[in-house]
Specification:
The chain has 200 residues and is mainly beta. The chain has helices at residues 119-126, 150-159; strands at 2-8, 12-18, 52-56, 63-66, 78-88, 104-109, 115-117, 135-139, 144-148, 164-169, 178-182, 191-199. It is globular and about 85 Å long. The protein starts with a strand and ends with a strand.
Length: 200
């Protein structure tokens, strides 16, 4: 713990222990300087921001992914059997210095601006299987991350949104890893949604 030693009324010696254990409150504060970094030319630049996207733990970057074309007639009155979002990592020149995030998660933005993990993440976490049902783990053989978004996509189709997902490294507050990914505007075409559904 942390001990405070003090004197009361100029004569009585006292001490007080602030106990520190696993249940104690914690606060992490980070600042990132992107000047000269590869990401600097992509932040808030709509001409380049869809060719590559970036993620970083701690107070680093998240990425917004917008799912388009779901309002088309072909997606009306369907039951989503399975939906997966797959993204491909752009391997770093020096992965020993810049290891990719081991785990990614997806959130959506609430009306008050806070982030809430999508239903597939919470269902997986509450199942007792950790995040294995949701996925999002790095596959180093293929440099890909595959995430189950079936429940979220069904909610989007049933309730007309939200169409925007927030992609983050996890656990963000204690994870310094970062990744550069091929975006949908890249010739590599490495952002995919695989959808299997039943039409009512």
């Amino acid at each position: 713990g942390i001990y405070l030693y003090y004197t009361q009324n100029d004569t009585i010696k006292r001490q007080f222990q602030f106990e520190v254990d696993n249940a104690s409150a914690r606060l992490s504060s980070y600042e990132h300087d992107y000047e000269g970094a590869p990401v600097s030319q992509f932040i808030d630049n709509f001409e380049t921001s869809d060719s590559l996207f970036f993620l970083q733990g701690m107070a680093g970057l998240n990425t917004e992914i917008e799912i388009l074309d779901l309002e088309q007639e072909e997606y009306e009155n369907i039951i989503v059997n399975k939906a997966e979002l797959e993204i491909n990592l752009k391997p770093a020149d020096d992965e020993s210095r810049f290891p990719p995030p081991e785990q990614l998660i997806l959130s959506s933005r609430e009306a008050d601006g806070t982030l809430q993990v999508i239903r597939d993440v919470s269902l997986s976490a509450n199942s007792g299987a950790g995040l294995s049902i949701f996925g999002g783990q790095y596959d180093e053989d293929t440099d890909t991350y595959t995430m189950n978004i079936s429940a979220h996509l069904q909610e989007v189709l049933d309730n007309n949104g939200p169409y925007t997902l927030i992609l983050s490294a996890f656990p963000k507050a204690e994870n310094p890893e970062r990744g550069i990914f091929f975006g949908p505007g890249n010739a590599m075409e490495n952002v995919k949604i695989r959808l299997s559904f039943t039409r009512l």
